[in-house]
Amino acid sequence: MRPQSLTPLFAQVTALPGIGPRLGKLVEKLAGPLVVDLLWHLPFAVIDRRNAPDVAGAKAGEVATLTVVVDEHLVPHSPRQPYRVWCSDETGRLCLTYFNGREDYLRKLLPPGETRVVSGKVEIYQGEVQMTHPDHVVPLEQRETVLRVEPVYGLTAGLTQRPVQKAIAAAVERAPELPEWQDAAYLARQRWQSWHSALARAHAPAEESDLSPIHPARARLAFDELLASQLAIALVRHHNRTLAGHATEGDGRLRKAVLASLPFDLTASQKTAVEEIATDMSKAERMIRLLQGDVGSGKTLVALLAMLICAEAGAQAALMAPTELLARQHHATIAPLAAAAGVRLALLTGRDGQKQKKETLQGLSDGTIHLVVGTHALVQEDVEFADLALAVVDEQHRFGVHQRMALSSKGYAVDLLVMTATPIPRTLMLAAYGDLDVSKLTEKPAGRQPIDTRTIPLERIGEVAQGVGRQIATGARVYWVCPLIEESEEIDLANVEERFRLLSERFPGKVGLLHGRLKSAEREATMAAFADGRLSILVATTVIEVGVDVSAATVMVIEHAERFGLAQLHQLRGRVGRGSAKSTCLLLYAQPLGETAKARLAIMRETEDGFRIAEEDLRLRGAGELLGTRQSGLPDMRLADLAAHGELLQAARDDARLVIDRDPDLQSERGKALRALLYMFRRDDAVRTLRAG
Ligand code: ADP
Ligand code: MG
Fold this sequence. Notes:
By secondary structure, the chain is an alpha/beta fold. It has four domains: 4-46 and 155-177 and 184-207, no CATH class; 50-147, CATH 2.40.50.140; 266-441, P-loop containing nucleotide triphosphate hydrolases (Rossmann fold), CATH 3.40.50.300; 451-607, P-loop containing nucleotide triphosphate hydrolases (Rossmann fold, 3-Layer(aba) Sandwich), CATH 3.40.50.300. The chain contains 26 helices and 22 strands. Strands 6-7-4-3-2-5-8 form a seven-stranded mixed sheet. Strands 12-13-11-14-15-10-16 form a seven-stranded parallel sheet, with helices on both faces. It has a six-stranded parallel sheet with strand order 17-22-21-18-20-19, sandwiched between helices. β14, α14 and β15 (415-420) form a beta-alpha-beta unit. The longest helix is centred in the first third of the chain and has 26 residues, at 216-241. The chain is globular. 42% of the residues are buried. Bound molecules: adenosine-5'-diphosphate and magnesium ion. Residues 299-300, 547 line the site of magnesium ion.
C-alpha cells in the first residue's frame, strides 16, 4: 500500500489550481498525468527580474521590471498594426506594444491613470523605450512577486510559462515532508538538504549556476531517483535469486573437441569469460550474465562453448539472433564446430519449410537436438524444449525485454547469457541493469592489425572509387555502405540502387547489392558470392551493421558518414579488420559538418576502442538515444543525467547493495522510508516482491 503521505502527489494534475481539463492535457503531455510528475519537471533557465531601473535608465536588450503610470491607449485602425499603451515615470515614456491585442482585455489590465509594474525585455525603437508583450503586468501591491529570479520551464505547444510556473509551484507546495530515506552518514558527507528542501530549492533557482546538474539540490534529487531505480532492480533480482535454478555442469569433453578443432587458441579474456559462465551455470541460482565485447572479439565462440556445457550435461541451449541473416550466420559459424564435437544443432527461423520446421520442433521437444540457433521464431508458442538450460541472446538491445524473457520462459529457471557487440558504457549498464554480472572480451584475437580510418569529403568520391578499383585489382573485398533513414525508405533504397548501378558500370560483374527489402534467398546468394570472392564490392545499407562476417573484407566505405551515430559507425567499421590483412575505413562526409558530426568523425579517426567510443557517444548524445531507451530496458530518468551523475550512480548501486544485505524486506526505519521512495518513483513492482508487512 502506498503511504498515505504521498496521496496528494498522486492526484491528477487537474487537481492543481489553474489547470482545467484543457491545460491538463497539455501538462500531461509535458510532464505526465500526476502531480508527482510535475515535481520532476525542473526549470531549464532563470530570468532575473530584480533589475528595476527607472524608464530613462532601462537598457535595450535587458530584462527589466519598471514601475509606471498608464497614460493612454492607442487602439490601431487596422488589425495589422500593433496596439500600443503609453506609460511613463518621472524620467521618461514607455511604450507597451501588443500584436493582436484585445482592447477590452488590455483596458482592464492597464487602466489609464493607474500605476502598474511591468516586466519584460526592454527595446529601444525609434528612440523610444518599448516593451513588446511584457511577461508581467501587475498592480503595485504585487510588485514583490515579480521582483525575483523566476524559474523558466520547458513547454509544449499550446502552453505558456505562467500557468506552468503556477502549477509547479502548487505541486511543490503539496509535497509532504517525508522521513529521510538516505543513509545519514552519506547525506551528511554530501551536505545535502532534506528531500523536501532540495525539491523546493531546485524549483527556485537563484542564478544560472543553480541549474547545473551538480548543484546540491539537483544532485540530491538525482541521487534519489538513481537510488530508487537501483534498489528496485536489486530487490527484483534478490527475489529471483531465491527461486532456485538449474545447476548445469559439464564434463568438458565437447568443449575440448571443439577447441581441438580450432586453428587458434582462445584469447585470455575468452578463457576468463568461459570460466565465469561455467561457474555461474554450475550454481543452482539463475545466471543472468552479459557478455560484452567489441565486434570481432569472438563472442560467438564463447557462446558456443557455454552452450556445449548444456549438451555435455544432457540439456539444451538456444541462441537467439535479432535477424534472419545473423541467425544463419551464427549457424554457419557454429555448424562445423558442433559437427566436430558430434552435437546435433538445428536452425529455426520464420522462413523454414513446413517439413523442416516440424523436424526441428520434434527434436527440440524430444531432446534429441541439443543446440539450436534461431530468430525470434524460437519464442513462438509451438516451440517446446525437453530441457532448456541456457538461453543466449545476441545483440540484446534489438530485442524487447519481453522477448528475452520469453526465451528464458521456455524452460524452468533458464540461465541467461546476453551478448552485445555494442560496448555499453559502464554507467549505462549500471543504470539499466544494476549490478549485473558482466564478462568482457577486452582484446581482439591475435594477429589483427589496426584499421586505417580516414575522413574524406564526398566531393572526392571519384578518387575513392578509383582507389577502390586499385584495391579490388589486388583481390581486396570492399563494403560500400549507404545510409538508410527510416522516414524515407523509398528514397534511401533509390540511393543504394543508384550507387550500385554506378559502381556496376565501373566494375562490371564485380558488384553486389544488399538491403533489407531483398528476399532472403537473394541476400544469401549475394553474401555467399561476396564471401567466396566472386563479388568484390558489396553495396549495402546498414543491414551489414550487425554480425556479417567476411574476414577477407579489408575496405569499408561509408557514404554520408555524418548521418550515422558513433556506435553505428563503430559497428560498421568492425566488419573489416577481422583477418590478418591490413584494413582501411573511408568515412565520406557531406559539408558543412555540424559540431557533433565533426566530433564523431574525429573520435572514429582517433580510436578503435569500442568502450571509449561508447563513452564518447554517451557524452555527445545523452543516454536515452544511445540504446533506444525503452527497448533497452533503460529506465527513463527524469532527474538524473547519466553523463553528469555517473559517480552518484555508483554510490546508489553500492547503497542499494548494502540495503539488500542488511534489510532485504525493508523493515527497518530506513527501510520504510525507502518504500516511500520506491512508490514515489513508481517502482511499485519492486515493492510487491517484498514480503507483506
Ligand atoms: P564477435 O561476435 O564478437 O563480433 P566473432 O565471434 O564473430 O566476433 O568472431 C570474429 C572472428 O574471429 C570469427 O571468424 C572467429 O572465428 C574468429 N575468432 C574468434 N576467437 C578467436 C581467437 N581466439 N583467435 C583468432 N580468431 C578468433
Ligand atoms: Mg558475432
